[in-house]
Fold these 3 entries.
Entry 1:
Amino acid sequence: MDDTPILAVTGLRARVPGVDLDILKGVDLAIRPGEIHAIMGPNGSGKSTLAKVIAGHPAYEPTDGSIDLRGEDLLEMEPDERAQAGVFMAFQYPVEIPGVSIANFLRTALQARLENGDELDLFDFQELLMERMELLDMDVAFAQRPVNDGFSGGEKKRNEILQMAVLKPSLAVMDETDSGLDIDALKIVSNGVNTLKRENPEMSVLLITHYQRILDHIVPDVVHVMVGGRIVESGGPEVALELEARGYEEYRNVHVA
């Protein structure tokens, strides 16, 4: 497997525009193709901010450092360019889009990826969508529902996994995907991610979470602890177990410049 990072974050600092205080205070992170990295940390540590800066969310402004995607400057790309380059963001609170079916939403997203104005073949898309839903053991009627409108928390997260399955990103950033899920929904979402990983071993995942429980189902290669806007410790899956047992108290006094 290629040892060159698909994502390299170096000295990244970021803040909310107009607020003279960095939330991210020098984040360093390297994810190689096929790796699953988990970031854990207390509330307000900067985990979700990092995810949104990677995705290009306009509510956050990088002030220093760099993010490279396969050697290209990610910070110079617009959010849609990042998506076309293979970055996928699964939101903690997925947006509802009444009146737009999941099928039409995904067809539009795939159409945007085509170059030279080529038209996406409708029958090819329908075949792909049905195959993806079968892979994830989903009822095909789900595709005709409006995007996240009236969905339960578990259904919204399941829809995120379906989007991943159709769009086939090279880097999936999952921001607290386990938030609000009961154990059955957690297993469904985790099984979906693991199925996609088996199908595409080169897909990398950055999984942001408060809790170890999702890591029982999606086993990370590396676990990072984020406190005060930077990563203060990295290690194997055992780090998550230690955090579950001891909490974050020992990290709270870590000096952050």
Entry 2:
Amino acid sequence: MDMPQLTDRAALMRNRARAEPSALFLHEHAADELHERLIEVNRTFTSIAIVTGFPDFWRARYPEATIVSDEDALALTPHAHDLILHVMCLHWANDPVGQLVQTRHALKPDGLLLCTFLGGQTLHELRASLAEAEAVVAGGLSPRIAPMGEIRDLGALLQRAGFALPVADSTLLTVSYANAFHLMHDLRKMGENNALHQRIKHATRRNVLTEAACIYADNFRNDENRVDATFEVITLTGWAPADSQPQPLRPGSAKTRLADALNTSETPIKRSND
């Protein structure tokens, strides 16, 4: 059975081709965040791969790395890398778990994956404004912004993909714009405008966009008379399994009672039939 297509790959590539380097502040943020995390890991990595839709940006940051396009089938060699960075593209993947499984197979034992991408709180202001405007003006809704994962669900993706020691966390970035039109123009310059497979293929009616901009200003204006836009950047951290990693103890194998460790008394549970 064919995989459902979330993303129109041709449209996504066109959007990225129009992106301007000066607008890639989300990639700048991700690069700085990943750098800090790698410092904390305190390990020297000798075989790095980067999965990205913006090769020039990331090649400049990691000139020694192998750069891989974020196709559905990743051009990664099995068990070849001790570090893989999957950066700012999982939110466009047709099969996010499949992407993670492929990175795990490409890691050496005890290799590290750092995966950063946009999460479910991203552009919630714009989504709400467009939905209300379209309902008022056009009497219905159309797909405009890719569905993005919620942080409470994303840690499970790493476990499903077979990673050890999985961690998921997120950072909210608030960016202000003169109005909603400036935000939408910036999304185009970032290469993050609509590339959904089920999107409407004609230009959005001007009166829908005008109504959305008015709703946006009414609901999300800040103290500086500008409008706020939220970007949620999620980072997944996982390790390829290895015998050297900490292993959970078998149930019942503890040699010390919890009550002794806490210096307290144990209270037996009274069963209902006692």
Entry 3:
Amino acid sequence: MALKRYSYIKYPYSRNGWISFALSVISLLLTLYVFVVAIAGGGSTGPFHAACGFTAVVMSLMGMWFSFLTLTEKEKNYLFGLIGGGVSLILCIVWVVVIVNGSRV
């Protein structure tokens, strides 16, 4: 008969996980904003919107970095770090596709 193990220790959420999650959410909102403005403007945007897009790319890269730092912490809950890292990775892929397709037009 196998013994069941119970653990009453709750691991706190990782601090870097929260940072990664926040950066990915802000990057997602900026990306959506830039895409909506670009679609509404027929593909032409100004320098402010280009700066918002660049900021979204940098924030998603930093979100992936903080997600990596989350996984190096011991005895922490990695949930928000993994969600933030996944969203940031998807946003980076989307931006690479948009930039490559935009340069061919």
